[in-house]
Amino acid sequence: xxxxxxxxxxxxxxxxxxxxxxxxxxxxxxxxxxxxxxxxxxxxxxxxxxxxxxxxxxxxxxxxxxxxxxxxxxxxxxxxxxxxxxxxxxxxxxxxxxxxxxxxxxxxxxxxxxxxxxxxxxxxxx
Length: 126
Fold this sequence. Notes:
Structural class: mainly alpha
Number of helices: 2
């Protein structure tokens, strides 16, 4: 065997070792890729579930905010109407008190000037 043949066989062996190492690295890398792809699928599934949950929560929140707005308007209208009722009740009470005062005066006999004269004459003649 000549020196060139020995060198060629040495190169061939080194080339085969290098290729085997590259293939081993590739298999290791394939394993990491498979693991990351599984993680990606798992995360995408969670992301889809969370996106759906977020959409449902947003819809519910929007409905609840509308309902709260309606309740706020109803409360404001009711409070305003109640305030008017209180105001009208106070006015009615004031009117009633005035009428009661006037009715009391109407019951008291009011003497005319002729009755006063007769009364005073009657007292003088006695």
